[in-house]
Write a structure and sequence with these properties.
Elements lengths: L2 H4 L5 H14 L3 H36 L2 H36 L4 E2 L8 H7 L19 H4 L37 E6 L4 E7 L9 E3 L13 E3 L33 E6 L2 E13 L15 E8 L6 E10 L3
Parallel strand pairs: 1-7, 3-4, 5-8
Antiparallel strand pairs: 2-3, 2-6, 4-5, 6-7, 7-9, 8-9
């Protein structure tokens, strides 16, 4: 089969049939090849002419459009693409920056409690619900009991009880020594522009205030007030009093605090100054962060990290500054 026939616009079946009929009718193959070559050239000319006509028509139509419309047709798609990239980047960048900037500056906790649970119970009145160990006298949990339970539901993390694995708050002993008349007090971190925030001791709604964990010590007392707060992506951080949803983002930046930064708690007109000493990151199941050491006066701030996620818990520990 000649080159002309191979380039023919006729499909293979039609071409074979054409050659068969040519052979039957006695037409020379050279004559058939020549005709097919002419047909192919004419089809190429027609296709090229139609393409040029289409381009010419599009060009004339484009020129008839107003200049603003022409610019918009070029700029708008590019702008939408850039906006999409910007939105994705704005959501991803805070998480990336947390791992590369904030996290390296903190002390990472081990995956289990630093001391066995039975020792924790000896030195603190906290009753903990640790999944990692065995309390003295209890039987060892089976592997099946240690496996995580997947809940097919979206949890509301503005409710403090949903921060814990089984949906219940671990109990702390000696609640009778807590002054239950104090149900609300003031919280300030000038460095983070948090001013006159409310901490409630009798609530679990993080959408309306910061929450002090039930049974933990009040500010200025022996032990550690453990205060929980919500976090969102850092670009949505707005702790100002004029923001009706300030508590949804109020703890978004606490993990950026550095050693020596000050936190102020005001209870019944008495102000207590705490100085940041340490930052750490723990698993959601590490309830030992609630432990109360009554030989020290500390403060613990807890939020979800990286901000905007529920993967782990970030903990800022501060000590009470006395005789200032």
């Amino acid at each position: 089969m000649s080159a002309a026939s191979r380039q023919s616009p006729i499909n293979r079946v039609e071409l074979i049939d054409l050659y068969r009929r040519a052979l039957v009718s006695g037409v020379a193959l050279e004559t058939l090849d020549h005709k097919i070559h002419e047909l192919w050239e004419r089809s190429q000319v027609v296709q090229s002419t139609e393409t040029q006509n289409d381009l010419s028509w599009q060009s004339r139509l484009w020129q008839t459009l107003p200049k603003a419309v022409r610019w918009g047709a070029v700029v708008v798609p590019a702008g939408l693409i850039l906006a999409g990239i910007g939105l994705v980047g704005s959501a991803v960048w805070p998480i990336v920056s947390y791992y590369f900037q904030t996290q390296p500056s903190m002390r990472l906790s081990q995956m289990i409690a630093p001391v066995p649970p039975e020792k924790v119970l000896d030195i603190t009145p906290l009753v903990v619900n640790q999944n990692e160990g065995q309390v003295a006298g209890d039987s060892i949990e089976t592997d099946n009991e240690l496996n995580p339970i997947v809940v097919d539901a979206k949890l509301d993390y503005t409710n403090l009880t949903n921060w814990f694995v089984d949906g219940t708050l671990p109990m702390i002993k000696r609640p009778e020594e807590i002054d239950h008349s104090v149900t609300i007090y003031r919280f300030d971190i000038p460095k983070l522009e948090i001013v006159n925030a409310e901490v409630k001791t009798d609530s679990d709604d993080l959408n309306k205030s910061l929450i002090q964990y039930p049974g933990t010590a009040l500010p200025g007392k022996a032990g550690s007030p453990v205060i929980f707060g919500h976090s969102v992506l850092r670009q949505f951080y707005n702790p100002k009093e004029t923001n009706p949803r300030r508590y949804m983002s109020i703890f978004s930046k606490i993990m950026t605090l550095q050693k020596g930064d000050r936190i102020y708690l005001t209870v019944n007109g008495a102000q207590y100054t705490y100085v940041v000493e340490d930052k750490t990151e723990v698993k959601p199941t590490d309830t030992y962060i609630l432990a109360q050491r009554y030989d020290v006066k500390q403060l613990k701030l807890v939020t979800c990290v990286p901000e905007g996620t529920f993967l782990r818990r970030g903990v800022v520990t501060a000590r009470l500054l006395v005789n200032e």
